[in-house]
């Protein structure tokens, strides 16, 4: 409503339409979310370190066959147990990180092992996360006996120690990358199912869900289009932590000889092969794959910790 004023007409704030106020606000530009995330990471500092480590891991996984100096499975008994940075008579470095008990290049095996660790970690979480999200949505949305059946299956799985269950299945199925991914993926579903179930219970009676139901949306559309986007944030945090735990589980199973065939270089199998040589003080055989596992797990945990703070609306760290 316009009123007279010595300097001219002005708009009464009480009569201002809400749509006019919304129209006056500057539109959010594409990429604002990425800029806020980058500023938050720069302030926290440690996530930058984690991103560098993960970038090196991804680069090693993608370009490992190209940049590796030797075939990771090529044996040379005459050059076995060579320490790092030893030069030959011509002044050339034979093995940058040394050689193992069969004369294989440790650096090349580390680069190829990064591919296995990243492949197993990401794929297993994708399988377990997809299965857990679907079952959690169904359980939380329908409830009743469906919820009871799904949750009791999860309780049965949690009653068994995960490593013991994985060993049992791998003994039956045999070692292999595919079998390892399937076993580790299935072992993760209950974590996602419980989180999604709890979130779905609290969201299924909300006004926007009721509105979608009143408009004739199907159960599948309500679960996967209306409810699922509202539970993505906690799932992202859990997935970043779980990738680290899956990489550790893969290394442990490979250390026990149940992960992948001996012809496939992995960090866990490299640690297993170094056991007999540690007495002879061949430190590089255990230190380098051990450092690779520690830095990778640490990087994923740092990213998960930062995501938890950044995606939590109660914390003011993402301004």
Task: Give Rg in angstroms.
Answer: 27 Å
Share in β-strands: under 5%
Which spans have pLDDT < 50 for at least 5 consecutive residues? 1-26
Largest sheet: 2 strands, antiparallel
- Helix-residue proportion: 55-70%
User: Which class do the helix and strand fractions yield?
Assistant: mainly alpha
Number of extended strands? 2
Q: Which sequence of SSEs, written as H and E, runs from N to C?
A: EEHHHHHHHHHHHHH
* Helix count, DSSP H or I runs of 4 or more residues: 13
Looking at the structure, what is the overall shape? elongated
Average of the residue pLDDT scores: 79
N-to-C span? 36 Å
Arrangement of strands in the largest sheet: 1-2
Description:
The chain has a domain at 120-202 and 231-311. Helices cover 65% and strands 1% of the residues. The chain has helices at 18-24, 32-44, 46-67, 106-142, 144-158, 162-173, 177-186, 189-203, 207-214, 219-227, 232-255, 267-273, 284-311, and strands spanning 2-3, 10-11. Strands 1-2 form a two-stranded antiparallel sheet. A hairpin with a 6-residue loop joins β1 (2-3) and β2. It is elongated. Mean pLDDT is 79; it is low at 1-26.
Please give a quick description of this structure.
This protein starts with a strand and ends in an 8-residue tail after the last helix. Helices cover 65% and strands 1% of the residues. By secondary structure, it is an all-alpha fold.
């Amino acid at each position: 409503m316009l009123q007279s004023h010595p300097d001219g007409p002005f708009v009464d704030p009480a009569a201002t339409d809400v749509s006019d106020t919304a129209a006056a606000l500057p539109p959010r530009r594409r990429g604002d979310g990425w800029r806020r995330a980058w500023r938050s990471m720069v302030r926290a500092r440690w996530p930058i370190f984690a991103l560098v480590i993960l970038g090196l891991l991804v680069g090693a996984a993608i370009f490992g066959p190209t940049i590796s100096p030797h075939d990771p499975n090529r044996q040379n008994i005459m050059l076995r147990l060579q320490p790092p940075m030893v030069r030959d008579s011509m002044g050339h470095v034979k093995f940058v990180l040394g050689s193992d008990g069969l004369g294989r290049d440790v650096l090349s095996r580390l680069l190829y092992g990064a591919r296995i660790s990243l492949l197993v970690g990401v794929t297993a979480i994708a399988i377990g996360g997809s299965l857990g999200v679907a079952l959690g949505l169904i359980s939380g949305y329908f409830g009743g006996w469906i919820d009871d059946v799904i949750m009791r299956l999860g309780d049965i799985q949690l009653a068994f120690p995960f490593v013991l269950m994985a060993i049992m299945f791998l003994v039956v199925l045999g070692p292999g990358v595919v079998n390892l991914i399937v076993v580790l993926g299935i072992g993760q579903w209950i974590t996602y199912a419980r989180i999604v179930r709890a979130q779905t219970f609290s969201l299924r009676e909300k006004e926007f869900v009721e509105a979608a139901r009143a408009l004739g949306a199907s159960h599948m559309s309500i679960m996967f289009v209306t409810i699922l986007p509202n539970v993505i944030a906690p799932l992202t945090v859990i997935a970043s932590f779980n990738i680290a735990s899956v990489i550790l589980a893969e290394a442990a199973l490979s250390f026990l000889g149940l992960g992948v065939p001996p012809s496939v270089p992995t960090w866990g199998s490299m640690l297993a092969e170094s056991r007999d040589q540690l007495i002879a003080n061949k430190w590089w055989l255990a230190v380098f794959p051990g450092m690779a596992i520690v830095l990778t797990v640490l990087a994923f945990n740092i990213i998960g910790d930062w995501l938890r703070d950044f995606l939590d609306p109660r914390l003011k760290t993402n301004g």
